[in-house]
Amino acid sequence: MDVGKRNFFRNIVRHAYKSDSVSRNVPRPPTALEEKKFIQTCTGCGECVSACPNGIIVVKNELAELDLELSYCSHCHQCNEVCPTAALSHSVSDCQLRPTITSNCNPQTAFYCAECQHGCPVGAITVQKNNKPAIDLGLCNGCNSCRYHCPVNAITTSILN
Q1: How confident is the model at residue 20 (pLDDT cuts 50, 70, 90)?
Q2: What is the pTM of this model?
Q3: Helix residue ranges, H only, 17-155
Q4: Which three-class secondary structure state does DSSP give residue 7?
Q5: Could you tell me if 74 and 143 are in contact, meaning their C-beta atoms sit under 8 angstroms apart?
Q6: H or E stretch including 10?
Q7: CATH number for the domain including 61?
Q8: For the segment 70-127, what is each residue's pLDDT rounded down to a tens digit?
């Protein structure tokens, strides 16, 4: 698709978001503006994709989003250093994801391996008396490191809205 057509369709999408707030339905880079402003500002240029050392940023539907299936965000902020439109900002530093620990957390052994706790860069995971991990959602920055480090896939993440 040529640039003229792409910009035409992009403007249609941008103007469709006239309401005051738009819910985020895909994970964005940790420094992304609130969703409405992000959609209006991001051009999908891919500079953040090239800058991300963990390879977790992809461009889909001409907007940057996170693909956290194989890695996590180290909050290095290299993505916002290269963003030419300021859709990624120093004033924000949260992936807007929050983890939930499922019942798959070592149910047969009642043994807590602590991999998620050790992998958490902000210390948001502690061990409860029942040997289960607990997540302080106020400390969590949504980086997905706990999910990445979990050997039994017992952690899921959901987007904050």
Answers
A1: low
A2: 0.80
A3: 35-41, 47-51, 78-82, 115-119, 145-149
A4: helix
A5: yes
A6: helix 3-16
A7: 3.30.70.20
A8: 999 999 999 999 999 999 988 777 888 899 998 888 766 667 788 999 999 999 999 8
105, 149, 50, 84 alpha-carbon torsion, rounded to 10° = 70
Written as one string, the DSSP assignment of 21-42 is -----S---TTBPPHHHHHHH-
Query: Where is the domain boundary, 95, 117, 142?
Result: 95
Percent of the chain at pLDDT > 70 equals 84
Q: Judge if 59 and 83 occupy the same domain.
A: yes
In a domain, 8, yes or no: no
In the chain, the amino acid numbered 35 is E
pLDDT at 1 over 70: no
Q: Is there a single domain that holds both residue 90 and residue 53?
A: yes
Q: Are residues 80 and 143 in the same domain?
A: no
pLDDT at residue 18, rounded to an integer: 47
Torsions phi, psi for 156 (to 5 deg): -115, 160
Domain interval for residue 122: 97-159
Residue 9 domain flag? no
Q: What is the mean pLDDT of the chain?
A: 85
Question: Within a 10 A sphere around the Cβ of 13, how many other Cβ atoms?
Answer: 13
Cα–Cα distance measured from residue 32 to residue 91, given in angstroms and rounded to the nearest whole number: 9
